[in-house]
Design a protein that fits this description.
191 residues; mainly beta; Porin; 1 helix; elongated; Beta-barrel_OMP_2; Outer membrane protein beta-barrel domain-containing protein
Amino acid sequence: MEVMKKHLLIIALLTLTVTINAQSIFGAKAGLNVSSLTKVDNVSARVRPLIGFYGIYQITDIYALQAEILYSWQGANCNIEQELGNKYAKVSIDYLKIPVLFKYNVWDKLSVDAGISFNLLMSAKESYGSDSYGIKGLNGLDISVPLSVSYVLWSKVDLSMRYDISLSDMNWGSRRGIYNTNLSISVGYRF
């Protein structure tokens, strides 16, 4: 799995390098995730940050490709029933996300985007009050389909709202069928 992570990171860096050197735009972005987990009882969304870099290669006036490298803090809030009673847990799942998006410019400053994202698991833990435990055995690669709407607010500032549809089961212990859900809102600054 470590070799796969390194290969995906190299591919992402090469993609961004090609994008940066061509007729392109590149920048940095930051935003908020509203994330949760499917098929887990008593779960609610958790708001956490995201940061990263992106490059846009303009193919034509209407079509473009966008590659990104994002560090995305995700997770959920859970109320877990155990033998000793209910416990409130915060689940933190952090990913290095490498999305590649196809952009269709609907109007001059508005685009709809779709693509694929390779999300490398960086950290996973459960926290109960001040106690924190690592989550072992999770799927190290989450593949998702990002769908987004982007708007260029000013020449150097853009806004984006994205929903990631996870295709990969997390394989959390004996639990199967648990997927990430994530809605993100971000602001990008173009260099």
